[in-house]
Amino acid sequence: MSFEINGTPFSQEPRAGQCLRTFLRELGHFGVKKGCDAGDCGACTVLLDGEPVHSCLIPAFRAEGRAVTTIEGLGSDHGAHPMQQAFLDAQGFQCGFCTAGMILTCASLNQAQRTDLGSALKGNICRCTGYRAIEDALLGKNNVEESVEAGAAFGRSLPAPAGPDVVRGKARYTFDTAIDGLLHIKLLRSPHAHAKIIAIDKSDALNVPGVHAVLTHEDAPSVLMSTARHEKDWMDPEDTRILDDVVRFIGQKVAAVVAESEAAAEEACRRIKVDYEILPALIDPEQAMAPGAPVVHPDRTTENRVADAKRNLVAETHGEYGDVAAVLATSAVKYEATFHSHRVQHAALETHGGLAWLDEAGILNVRTSTQVPFLTRRALSDIFKLPMDKVRVFCERVGGGFGGKQEMFVEDILALAALKTGRPVKLELTREEQFIATSTRHPMRVHIKAGADADGKLTALQLEVLSNTGAYGNHAGPVMFHSLSESIAVYNCPNKRVDGFAVYTNTVPAGAFRGYGLPQTQIAIEAAIDELAKQLGISPYEMRRRNVVKTGDPMLSPPPSEFHDVVYGSYGLDQCLDLVERAMQADGPQPDLSPEWLIGDGVALTMIDTVPPAGHIADAMIALNDEGGFDLTVGTAEFGNGTSTVHRQIAATTLATTVDRIHLRQSDTAHGGHDTGAYGSAGTFVAGKATHEAAMQLATDLKVAAADAWLCDVGTCRLEGETVVSGVRRMPFAELAKLARERGQPLVANGNSGGTPRSVGFNVQGFRVAVNKGTGELKILRSVQAADAGVVANPMQCRGQVEGGVAQALGAALYEEMVIDATGRVTNPKFRDYHLPSFADVPRTEVFFAETTDTIGPLGAKSMSESPYNPVAAALGNAIADATGIRFTAPPFKPDRLFPALHEKFG
């Protein structure tokens, strides 16, 4: 068979049944990505005779005699294709995993298709950008500042350093490499929600040709751990084993097959015989807490950091300031309701997975898609009793995370297989496995009581949260505590009460997810503020202004925290409220809608601590190189959060140079130092601060070195335009490097940040919606968000984080929902049945930034990747209530959910 790929003929024969995507990747065209295996996401898009197709759906043999173009072949040796350049100019990507497929589709559009982008791009999903930067690329808009003078990088809209490689398909993600002798891992998973494994018969599986090992709980260390990764292990319960003899949810791994091919491993999985003793299963968290309920983890105790295993409680909290019940009884107005949040999948387009091997020095190497390489190394070292210097964990570019990759779901199995076989191994989860066997957002039941006096001042706030953590307690306690903290700490109120319960059930585990518990409670709290304002005849903006904390006010949520390091590094909440109110009141396009449509406005605000409590550590190292540039080493990972860009901007500004002179190495434990990880709103605030500290120290060292050479007072020296200047004397950095080399004294500096004290960020979201009272259909007419990010390190990039956060949150508020049946089975474990927002679903959000300078963050900046998500569902719920007069308390706000109440009210 003959193929033409990117203009070059190939005669290689594909395997029987092989799809075009795997065929192309095996030929080294790594720009063709795997996202769904079902033609739903478009990450594998290629051009077949000039037409875009999903290569995961095309049998490879059907490309015979046809011209295949991958992203690598779209441009030429002389430069990028115009569409690749357009994506660079607009920075139409974040993690970049979808970008190759998106560019190929966009490059194929004719003028007619460009007039209806919602239809033209429906086959390509982006989880990061919110699509607006992609639209900018198609409109030929330039969002970047190409030329910035030395020392002026911070605060400018500079492009991502990996951009050229991303748009040309050269950026390397986890599996974009070829390794000789690679074995493949496939996992046998439990069909039962709760069962004890009595026996496992491997014999038939081991007889499959090409199978090297079948690993079960008998082959794995029996160490108890948590899949959650935190700097401090005490934050999570020890309730999980690599492979267990008890399965607690449908989809839990039972055995791992290691074979020469995925096909052999899959066949072996089918041949494993498992004898199960079925145990009672709990699906509902309220039933799980009831007296006499079956126990999910009967052997766990408080020594394993499980609060009360007999009640299926992983964690609980209770606290009160004042007397809520007494004050509510006498409040002028009051509100009480119960809200429910649902399961949402992270849906990062790159699924969990990795590669592992032992090198010649006996070091276990794990190349993986993770947000936390250093914490994963520590866990593998502990589990397998290996010295830390015998474990290396690293990641290349990561295809999205959103908190889901703050877990260890695959690295332990990879390490076990590599150590048992002595061969390099690969494990890449399918999209279905991502749904049924990793983690979700915590579903919560939130009961709220709130009261206010006649002047609109809050008198009492009470929250009761029941959080369903699923079968294991990864992040259970921290998410529950977080959901009850900043959500009410942002409001001044003399009487507050919280009761929180995180409960085990026999369902897929929940875990870390963007917002970390705040979106679930925020929808209830912000609804209460609106409902109290309506009863008093006060505008929702004014109600918030009268009650939000201001600089100097204590940020209180019971019970009292043992951590007292949260301060107002900057305060821009007042500006954010003003910006959103003005934007919502400004004239805009008037919708042409029939009387069937009801129009309403909604607003919600949130506050978030910029770093998790109890320490978040980052090290950085920067050195002057021989060419007069700088080599910067950081531990934090890049997965669309933009830290790679910001680190270079911080260093370049501090060292009076340009970003192209900063050469970045990151996210590899072999580079030394330590980094807790890119999570908890810490990428810029903590890791960036370490970079700033290292760069400031090196700036001092450069001046000292020049002063020593000139025999002058170092106080007369300054950095300017890639030189050290003192009076009329100038010494270029390259000359300093030569001088240091001759003296045998390299100029290198280290920086460290411990994540304390912590600051707070603020976001305010406004929506105008139209709801069709006859059908339940909802249209978003206006979307506005204002953010207090301190000094905005990169306005274009930060705006993209806000747009992407709003889009992702809208997906959860309007469409996305993991459905679990009465047996505990996920019934929609694929994108086809799980509605991710596409281009047509997402409105353009107007983004505004408060003008503040944070006194703690690097160069005045603070976090803004996580928090834009938090107020979205709450603001949308308030807008729907304003339009319809009906308070809907359980997203997603799908038409079929809205219709019954609308029909009852309006007929």
Written overview of the protein:
InterPro entries: 2Fe-2S-bd, 2Fe-2S-bd_dom_sf, 2Fe-2S_ferredoxin-like_sf, 2Fe-2S_ferredoxin-type, 2Fe2S_fd_BS, Ald_Oxase/Xan_DH_a/b, Ald_Oxase/Xan_DH_a/b_sf, Ald_Oxase/xanthine_DH-like. Belongs to the xanthine dehydrogenase family. Keywords: Iron, Metal-binding, Molybdenum, Oxidoreductase. One of its GO terms (molecular function) is iron ion binding. This is Aldehyde oxidase. The structure is a single chain. By secondary structure, the chain is α+β, with helices and mostly antiparallel strands. It has 5 domains: 2-168, Orthogonal Bundle (DNA polymerase, domain 1); 183-279 and 347-437, Aldehyde oxidase/xanthine dehydrogenase, a/b hammerhead (Aldehyde Oxidoreductase, domain 3, Alpha-Beta Complex), CATH 3.90.1170.50; 292-345 and 439-558, Aldehyde oxidase/xanthine dehydrogenase, molybdopterin binding domain (Aldehyde Oxidoreductase, domain 4); 567-607 and 759-906, Aldehyde Oxidoreductase, domain 4 (2-Layer Sandwich); 618-753, Aldehyde Oxidoreductase, domain 4. 27% of the residues lie in helices and 21% in strands. The protein contains 25 helices and 31 strands. The strands form 7 sheets. The protein has a 7-stranded mixed β-sheet with strand order 8-10-6-17-14-15-16. A 5-stranded mixed β-sheet has the order 2-1-5-3-4, covered by helices on one side. It has a 5-stranded mixed β-sheet with strand order 12-20-19-18-13, sandwiched between helices. Helix 12 (373-384) links the parallel strand 15 (364-368) and strand 16 (391-394). Helix 2 packs across helix 3 (99-107) and helix 2 (82-90) packs across helix 6 (132-138). The protein is globular and about 80 Å long. The N and C termini lie far apart (64 Å). The mean pLDDT is 97.
